[in-house]
Amino acid sequence: MAGTQLPEDIRAGIRGIVAEVLEVDASDLTEDSSFVDDFDADSLLVIEIISRFERDLRIRIPKDELAELDTLPEAYELVGKHYAAGAVGA
Question: What is the pLDDT of residues 42-59, one digit of tens each?
Fold first, then answer.
């Protein structure tokens, strides 16, 4: 399941998780926002975002994919790939 095909409630959940971890309002996150450049996210915050995806969405994301996460579209794609591979639901 590609990130663009994720159900809207899952996409909203992803946006909410990212906003909470980055301590920003979800409305401040745009499709073009860079977590690193726009919100000063470091590698620990990226790890925390991925950990929250795993816990809250009940998925497993390989640690070698950590570096691929800097925007909402990348987050949707990453979650979509692993959500389709075995999530039980959110």
Answer: 989 999 999 999 999 999
Tell me how many helices (H) and strands (E) the chain has. 4, 0
d(CA 69, CA 50): 9
CA 67 to CA 58: how far, in whole Å? 20
pTM comes to 0.86
Residue 81 identity:
K
Give the integer Cα–Cα distance in Å for 87 and 42.
27
Number of neighbouring beta carbons within 10 Å of residue 33: 17
Residues 6+ apart with CB under 8 A from 74: 3, 68
